[in-house]
Amino acid sequence: MSLLAPLFALGALAVVIPLLVHLVHRERKDALAFPSLMFLRRTPYPFSARQRIRDWLLFLLRSALIVLAALAFARPVVARRQAALAAGTGGQEIVVLLDRSFSMRYSDRWQRARSEVQRVVDGVGNSDRATLIPFDRRASAVNEATNDRAMLRAALDSLKPSDEGTRLAPPVALAQRILSSSDLPRRTLVVVSDFQRTSWDLTDDVQLPPGTEIRTIDVSGEVRDRAVRSVEIRRTPGGDASRVLVSARIVNVGRAQRGIGVRLEVGDREVERKSLDLPEDGGATVTFANVAVPNRAVAARIVIDGDELAGDDIFHFLLTRAPTIPVLLVEHRDALPERGVFVSRALEIGDQPAFDVLARRSDRVAPADLAGRRLVILADAGIPMGVGAQRLERFVREGGGMINVLGERTSARTWPATAKALIPGAISEPADRLGERGAVLGFVDRRHQALALFSGTRSGDLSAARFFRYRPIDTTDGVLARFDDGTAALTEHRLGEGRILTWASTFDGYWNDLPRQAVFLPFLHQLSRYAASYREQKRAYAVGEAVQPGDLVLFDRPGAANVPTRWTVLSPSGKRIAVGGEDGAPSLELREAGVHEVRPSGMPNAEPLLVAANVDPAELDFATFDVSRLTNVLQPPGSVAAPAAAADPQATLAEREQKQSMWWYVLAAAAIILFTEGLLARRTSAQRLLTQ
Amino acid sequence: MTSAPRPSQPQAADPGMPGARFIDPAALARIGDLELIARWVVEGFISGLHRSPHLGFSTDFAEHRQYMPGDDIRHIDWRVYARTERYYLKEFEADTNTNFTVLLDVSASMGYAHQSLTKLDYAKYLAACLTYFSHRQRDRVGLVTFNDDVVDIVPPSAKHLPHVLHGLDRARAGGKGSLAMPLAKIAENQRRRGIFLLLSDLYEEPASVITALGALRDGGHDVMVMHILDSAERTFPFDDASTFRDLETGVQLPVVPSKLKKEYLAGIDEHVRAMGKRLGENRIDHTLVDTSQPLDRLLFDYLVRRERLRTVR
After folding, report:
1. What pLDDT does A646 receive?
2. Maximum separation of any 2 CA atoms in chain B, in Å
3. What residues in B contact A684, CB-CB < 8 Å?
4. Which of A26, A34, A50 sits opposite B247 (nearest CB)?
5. Closest by alpha carbon to A512, among A412, A430, A424, A401?
6. Residue in A31, A33, A41 nearest the CB of B112
7. Distances from the Cα of A317 to the Cα of A298, A339, A408, angstroms
């Protein structure tokens, strides 16, 4: 039998009232006057005489009345199991799913969940079998199905909550396999969790074997928590690259909080401390200005005053300089200064990443100017004489990027035959479209990584620009955009590790009005990022994400060669994890919050690469889903056609209670008892008055 | 006051007693006026006994009085009726002319009542009825109330019925009870022989009661004892473990009735039996009176004993 409102069952404790009444009120308080004590003698009250309950029938009636009334309010539901009915009282296959995700660390949730599981384990009979499956993002059984309660308790004792998120599908699938293969007549699935909404990933095709009883134990409750959700690093405006602004977003669930301390710690040193007021169920941003950044990335963290959930009060991240793409912008030696203004101004804007632009005239470019550059933009300049096509080609082959902008000065002289590899194909004389109010871009490959930014609606209208003149390129490969007459407008071709983009018109506002369109800035930024093979370095990962150590090397040293393939990772708890190679995991899967140190295998003294991991943000969303939804999805459909005597397994507890309306019968029984008690009490009272 | 059935409804329904009306003492308690109660009980009782062979009226004419409804028509003087056309009864001088003194125990134990009527109230009704009855027979009536000493005295006189009734009315239960001293005092002051009716609960040893009554008996007086007990004293109908307090001494005892009941009942029965035996041996009438018993039955008993006393004398 289950109770829809079990708290009301506590009312049964009131049964002590009739007990006290019947025990305490039976002894006379006043002395009884009597004519003479001549024939009486002292008989001390025996203890049993004081404590003896008188009027047993009345007492039992009153106790039953209270218990029945409490039971009626608790709304009882009789759970009749189809399988149990069919198979009598045989053994039971029990699968216990125990949520051990990060959110279970809140307050006493884990202790309560363990107590509930302990209770289930205590109820395992000799003919039963139980399996304990802890789960977070993944699930695995900690024991073979057994009726050994000691083993189950030991398995339970070995568990503790993790830092990971929650997914329901893996444990349910595992439970389904165990229950389906069971030969025992009865099957029970017990789910102990806080049922976070973000954990729901079940599909409707999950089906448990017919007759499986599903018990859900919800340990969630009201939550008051504050957490560091994110950290952002920006270059200090007007400052050099070694100074950054660190902004942290603090969110608060629950009542408003005042004077919350926020600390920025770099390494093990506290750099700055601030105080913050948090609104009710809201958030606030705290900024640490002018933070000095060393050359290499260092581990840093934002720490706020602790609360009942400590794990989200610290946010680990890597303190690095704001990302920058070093660009060499080459203009023709004869170009008017104002013709390059659109490009140079566009590249001055933005800091994610920033563009460190070195502008040179084509006749003044030296080979040293290429050092440390990730991108070369040739703005209608041709091959700079001082560098030569060979060096540029090598630059590109080694991973550098290049954007060729074709214009009126493009000619066989500016693009000699030696530079053939740097252009996608033959370049023709300019096509003039002045008589038709200009051409437009007829095709843009928005699926391409370089132009994917414009794939969404209202995300930049590239067709608004008018092109009056352009140089047709003779190529069919790697065309990213075409004019309305079908000629290539933007092409890409690769050379070694690098990328070369060729734009068939200018960026100076003479051959087209693209630089005057709002879309120009993001367009140029996207082309530059793509050509420079820029990848955003993550300063902080979420627990559960996977990291390729090789990528970390490339972030640290772009274009580095001979990247190791085998790595050893030291987790925050001191565990060593092998990654790569034949024995190791293919990638580092982050399972703990904190800073991981990654070193090439066999080089324990090497400078580590750092990976900062934080709690999965989904775990900080404490909203829950309706538990009946889980029951509805998991209930086997075959049970719908159960005999009338069996409970409808698809019905929720509330629906079953409504259907059975047991409370009505219980209350009717209580009313009958009340009437009987009244009659009996009156009679007993009259008799007692008479005898006194 | 309740009309619920009492635990002991004693010999009340004795079918052998003609004309008895068995007036409920609880009903009498509602009336309150002792004279009215006495008249009601006695007149009714006498009317019911008109065919009784034990009628004790004398044949000496005393006076006429006007007929009242309920009077026996055999006593109507038809000659007077012939002269005056009014009904007059002939009343006769009683042949007894003795002193009738009620000795009423007013100790605190007589104030006990398990239900509504105390033993003292019952004794008052009984005394009033018997006094009235005796007064009708031209006895001189008197009253002595006492506890461990004499409290109030109304000397016997043919005109003292109102005084006796008044004395009964103002009697209140209180003090310890003891027969020896008050009865010794009374015996000293008696000049004429008479009848003494002792109304008491007799919580004394039979020997001391005999000793106390011995002075009266030795003085040639007729002594009758009515041993008045409440029904609760005879049945001990208690269940709860309680502290019992003696009404006279105030001494308290913790008692578990369920354990002691048997022993108590045996003790009180033995006491009553021994009291009757010892008094009988000394030619003193002993009548056990239960306060739930109807009054007129006792009147009948009293009349029977008076007849026996006269016969014996």
Report:
1. 34
2. 75
3. none
4. A34
5. A430
6. A33
7. 8, 42, 49
Task: State residue B105 phi and psi, 5-degree precision.
Answer: -75, 120
| Residue among A270, A273, A251, A271 nearest A262 (CA) | A273
pLDDT at residue B30, as a whole number: 56
Q: What is the pLDDT averaged over residues A333-339?
A: 86
Q: Are B149 and B107 in contact (CB under 8 A)?
A: no
Q: Which residues of B touch A36 (CB under 8 A)?
A: 109, 201, 203, 246-248
- Which tokens in the block code for residue A435? 């008589």
Look at A43 and B254 and tell me if their CB atoms are within 8 Å.
Answer: yes
Quick one: which H or E segment has residue A503?
strand A498-503
Say if CB B240 and CB A52 are below 8 A apart: no
Which residues does residue A568 pair with via DSSP β-bridges, in sequence order?
Answer: A578, A599
pLDDT bin (cut points 50, 70, 90) of residue A6 is confident
Q: Nearest CA to B208 among B228, B248, B173, B181?
A: B181
Cβ–Cβ under 8 Å, residues B132 and B158? no
Residue pair A227/A273 in contact by the 8 Å Cβ criterion: no
Q: How far apart are CA A443 and CA A88, in angstroms?
A: 72
Q: Are A483 and A467 in contact (CB under 8 A)?
A: yes
A47-to-A23, A44, A51, A54 alpha-carbon distances in Å = 12, 9, 6, 14
Write out the two tokens for A658. Answer: 């409504």
In sequence order, the β-bridge partners of residue A121 are none
Q: What is the mean pLDDT of residues B194-220?
A: 89
Q: Dig out the tokens for A524 from the structure.
A: 């140029």
Residue with the bigger pLDDT between B289 and A31: it is B289
Element (H, E) at A86: helix A82-87
C-alpha to C-alpha distance for A219 and A113, rounded to whole angstroms: 6
DSSP output for A557-617: STT-SS--S-EEEE-TTS-EEEESTTTSBSSEE--SSEEEEEEETT-TTSPPEEEEEE--G
Q: List pLDDT tens digits, range A163-197.
A: 888 999 999 999 988 998 888 888 889 999 999 98
Instruction: Please check whether residue A511 is in contact with residue A505, taking contact to mean a CB–CB distance below 8 angstroms.
Output: yes
Residue A33 is encoded by which pair of tokens? Answer: 């006057």
A557: tokens are 């040293």
- 10 Å Cβ neighbour count for A9? 16
The ipTM estimated for the assembled molecules is 0.74
Residue B175 φ then ψ, to 5°:
85, 165
> Is A617 within 8 Å of A283 (Cβ atoms)?
no
State the burial class of residue A507 (Cβ atoms within 10 Å of its Cβ: 0-12, 13-18, 19+): buried
Whether B264 contacts B256, CB under 8 Å: no
Q: Tell me which residue of B95, B92, B67 sits closest to B80, measured CA to CA.
A: B67
The token pair at B71 is: 């009077």
How many C-beta neighbours within 10 Å does residue A408 have? 15
- One-letter amino acid at B96 equals T
Contact call for residues A507 and A405 (beta carbons, < 8 A): yes
Vertex A54, ends A49 and A56: CA angle to 5°? 135
- Classify each residue of A518-556 as buried b or exposed e, where b means 16 or more C-beta atoms within 10 Å of its C-beta: ebbbbbbbbbbbbbbbbeebbbbbbbbeebebbebbbbe
Question: What secondary structure letter does DSSP report for B286?
Answer: E
Phi, psi of B194 (to 5 degrees): -160, -170
Cα–chain-centroid distance for residue A681?
64
A117 CB burial (10 A radius; 0-12, 13-18, 19+)? buried
Measured torsion, CA atoms of residues B176, B181, B183, B185, in degrees rounded to the nearest 10: -130
Cis check for the bond before B18: say yes or no (omega within 30 of 0).
Answer: no
Residues of A within an 8 Å Cβ radius of B: 26-28, 31-46, 49-50, 690-691
CA A181 to chain centre: 33
- Selecting from A31, A41, A44 the residue whose C-beta is nearest the C-beta of B245 gives A31
